[in-house]
Amino acid sequence: MQPRRLDQIFSRYGYGSRSEAKHWARAGRITVKGEVVKDTAEKADPFDVLIDGKPIEAPDGLLVLFHKPAGYVCSHDTREGANIYDLLPKQWLQRNPPVTSIGRLDKDTTGVLLLTDLGELVQRWTSPKHKVSKVYDVTVDGTLKPELVDLFAAGTLQLEDEDKPCLPAKLEILSPNTARLELIEGKYHQVKRMFGSQGCPVTKLHRSRFGDYTVDDLAIGQWRMVATPAI
Ligand code: URA
Fold it and tell me: Which pTM does this prediction carry?
């Protein structure tokens, strides 16, 4: 990677301010290629820098797979109540740019949520143009009619206050009140609005897949880093 000033590196990756980095350097806590560096104006490749013997976290971007629990909003606004960022390392929020979710899930929705500090990835994976498929396990209040399968597949379902109809979506009815829905877009509250428009309010929603990512082995509230794809 391009060499950068050490103090910039520590603030970019969320470790602390430039003045904090200065103190760490003076205390001999920072090394570059094994040599203690006491001046944070010095430049280095972030991959060569250690703080307290540990490498800088994810210098070329961070991608995290998170099993979102119910009861947390996907928002950086602390006024909206308990939010997912309370459950994640503080350092990720202090990165610049900060880690943010790729799309959002409602407060009561559980399941796969990806987070990153790579703006390009957010753009790519939230745009319907890139056709990233998302699968939702849905429970409704009411009885799902078989006609919904063709209706959702037709690409004609017009939701209130939307310019365009929903893109074709694949619905599999699993029981009178449960279904699996695969979408490639993410309009505001889309799943709830699709079922709600057909007289079947959603009572439980879980995203079981986002692109190739699933939370099979991750307990609710747990996260793990995943490799960043080539963009
Ligand atoms: N659609 C919704 O209605 N809610 C979600 O959380 C995700 C998709």
Answer: 0.94
